[in-house]
Structure formats: C-alpha cells, structure tokens
Design goal:
Blueprint: H1 2-31, H2 34-46, H3 48-61, H4 65-86, H5 92-103, H6 106-114, H7 117-121, H8 126-154, H9 157-170, H10 172-176, H11 189-202, H12 204-235, H13 240-260, H14 267-286, H15 291-319, H16 325-353, H17 355-373
C-alpha cells in the first residue's frame, strides 16, 4: 500500500511542480506577453489560500478521501488543459479565471495527499513513511522544472502542459485505492473550518510550525527568484540558475534519505536547525564570488530545506487530531503557497536591483523564522527547540498524554 501511495504521490507532485512553469512557458510562447504569462501563474497559486481550508474539511469528512483526491487531481488537470486550449482562442481574463479556479484544488496535491499517510502507513511506520513522503517533494521539485525545460525546448510548451496533465491523471489509481476511514465529522462545514483554525492557533507546536514555515517559505521564494539572476551574474547564462535549484533539490533529497534512517528524531529541533541551515546557505549564496561557491551554497540550502519539510510534516502528524488532520495539512499548504507568492512579489524588484540583496533578505527571513520556531523559556528555564511535550490541550483536540 505504501509503495502505491508513493508512486501516486511522486506523479501528482511532479505534475504539480510542472504546472506553473509549463503554464508560464506556454502562455509566453502563445501570447508573447510576460504579463499575461505571469498572471496565469499568479492565478494558479493565489487561490490556494481559499481552497485549502475547505478542501481539508471535505477530506476530513469523507469516508473515502481518496475519491475526493481523485476528483481534485482530475479537476486540476482539466483546468490546465482548458487554459492550454484557450490560449490564443479565448479572452485572457477568462483564462486567468480558469487558472484561479484550478488553483483552488492545488492544496489537495500537497497537504491533502500527505494527510492520508497515517491511513496508509499506520503509527508504527509513520516516521519512516513521512521521511519518504517528504523525499517525494524533493524528487518532484527536481524533476518537474527539469522536465518542463527539456520538453519545452525539444518539443514545445504545449507538450509540457500535456505531460503535466498526464502525470496528474496517472496518480488517479493510487488515489482511488487509498484506505477509507471509519469516522467522519458530524458538524457543519463552517464549524469544522473554525475548529481547524482553532487547533492550529491553540496548539503551541502547531502554531509555531505554521507561522515559522510561512516566514521561511517567503524567504525561500527569494532564493528561487534570485537563482537565474545569480547564475547570469556569475556565468553569463541565466539557465545556470536552474542548475543551482537542481543542486538544492538533490541535496535536500540526500539529506532526507539520511534522516529516514534515523529513529524518531526530535522533530521540533530538526525544524529549527533545518531552517537555520537553509538561511546559512542563502547567506553564502548572497556573497558568492564564483559559480562553484554558489553551487556549494545551494547544496547547503538544500541540506536544510529537505529535513525542514520532513520535520514540518512530522509535527503536523503528531499534533493534529485525526479528524482534523487533512484540514491542518491543507490549511498549512495554503498559507505557505500564499506566503511564497508574497515573497516572490517582493523578490522580483530586489533581485532586479541585486541578487545578493534579495538573497540576504531571504536569509534574514530564515533567521526570523528560527526566532519564531524556538520554544520560549518557561518559568525562567532555558529555551528549547523541542524534545519535550507536557501534553497538548485544546477545545478541539482535548488533552493527550506526552508522545514517546
């Protein structure tokens, strides 16, 4: 069951990683307008903040969440195909609206899928399964943009969009065979949404992880936007910036592979040091005077970002009540996507002025995220990133005994 889940997760997430670049490349090729292309990409990402909480509630209330995931995959693929077919044929505003509608389903491909992992792996294998699941994001982050670049260059942007939709649809069999759950919510959708936000706000580790990951994701956008500019400054070729991102993804994959071999690390501590290492890599990239220094910086950043994502998922799995898990994951995915969009919007003008300035701003955001993630002293005690838990109480989750 876990192997089938992983195959579906890799296919869905690779398709997701391809969707933005494919739409950007195709939109630019057909319309010749960078503005239209960027608006299509923005439309696909900005609506995630609205879609995530509602998708989470529906997944938590569904006895067969895999069916809803399958519908979400199909709807996302259909939206991409509608935009692709309408380019040059339909009004641009209508196509942007379709992209916005498709983007509402985006969190199902990330957090919504990950939230089903306990149903697949069980509590005994959850730590290892979570590390493998996080690695699927690294694989998708490495393969998705690379596939778009290769296919768009050799065949064309149209083929990239079609391949993206094909990968999303290839994940349908795995989604449809996900296990069912015995209990579903019995409250209204509005009550469930309020309960989901309440458990995130009322649970200290979840609140810190959510806020810290938002800040960190805005900083990560600085690295992604700045990479082509940095590549062009150091080598004269902006395409080398894609190589830097590939190095970061590969480094994150390797770090997660090492992490998967460990038994139950202190995940809150991993979340803190992973964010700090990511910031250190961005700071090194900001002062790089050669391309190979930049490659080293990208590897350092990836070595932090990969475990950071695994730790974030582990904290969510540990702290979220079972009946609200999907909502916690999709809401978390939504706010991260939105903060990434905000970071990217700020990174553009900064990188145009100086890639180093944008990267230093990103490193500063990672430092701010670390400050949020570190557990504050209690009664004069020393601060701890985590390795403790005195129990978790909230009006939603009730009180639970400490985790082992």
């Amino acid at each position: 069951m876990l192997s089938r889940y992983m195959v579906g997760a890799v296919a869905a997430r690779t398709g997701d990683e391809m969707s933005g670049p494919a739409l950007l490349v195709t939109g630019l090729a057909v319309t010749g307008s960078p503005l239209v292309a960027s608006w299509l990409l923005a439309g696909l990402t900005v609506s995630a903040a609205v879609g995530g909480p509602l998708l989470g509630v529906l997944l938590d209330r569904a006895r067969r969440p895999g069916r809803l995931l399958a519908w979400s995959l199909s709807g996302y693929a259909a939206g991409l195909l509608l935009v692709w077919y309408g380019l040059g044929r339909a009004p641009e505003a209508a196509l942007i609206a379709v992209a916005v509608a498709a983007g509402l389903l985006g969190p199902a491909l990330t957090g919504g899928w990950t939230a089903q992992l306990p149903l697949v792996a069980g509590t005994e294998r959850l730590n290892r399964a979570n590390a493998l699941d996080s690695m699927s994001y690294n694989v998708a982050g490495l393969a998705g943009p690379a596939l778009v670049g290769v296919v768009a260059t050799t065949i064309g942007g149209d083929a990239a969009v079609l391949m993206c939709a094909g990968l999303l649809l290839a994940a349908l069999p795995a989604a449809l065979t996900l296990p069912s759950r015995d209990e579903t919510g019995d409250r209204t959708v509005r009550q469930e949404i309020a309960a989901g936000f309440a458990v995130i706000a009322g649970n200290g580790p979840l609140r810190r992880a959510t806020a810290g990951s938002m800040i960190s994701c805005a900083g990560l956008a600085m690295l992604i936007v700045s990479a082509p500019v940095l590549g062009a400054r150091l080598t004269g070729e902006s395409g080398h910036g894609a190589l830097l991102l590939a190095v970061a993804a590969a480094s994150g994959l390797a770090a997660n592979a090492l992490l998967a071999a460990r038994r139950a690390p202190r995940w809150d501590a991993v979340l803190v040091w992973g964010t700090a290492v990511l910031g250190a890599g961005m700071a090194l990239a900001a002062v790089s005077w050669s391309f190979w220094i930049a490659v080293t910086a990208a590897a350092v950043a990836g070595a932090g970002q990969g475990p950071q994502l695994t730790a974030l998922f582990s904290v969510r799995h540990r702290e979220a009540p079972a009946r609200l898990r999907s909502q916690v994951f999709t809401t978390g995915a939504s706010v991260k996507i939105t903060s990434f969009a905000a970071g990217a919007a700020l990174a553009g003008p900064l990188a145009a002025h100086s890639a180093g300035a944008a990267l230093l701003a990103g490193a500063a955001l990672q430092a701010a995220a670390v400050a949020v993630l570190v557990k504050r002293p209690v009664n004069g005690g020393p601060p701890r990133a985590r390795g403790w838990r005195s129990g978790s109480c909230s009006s939603v989750a009730g009180c639970r005994r400490p985790s082992p």
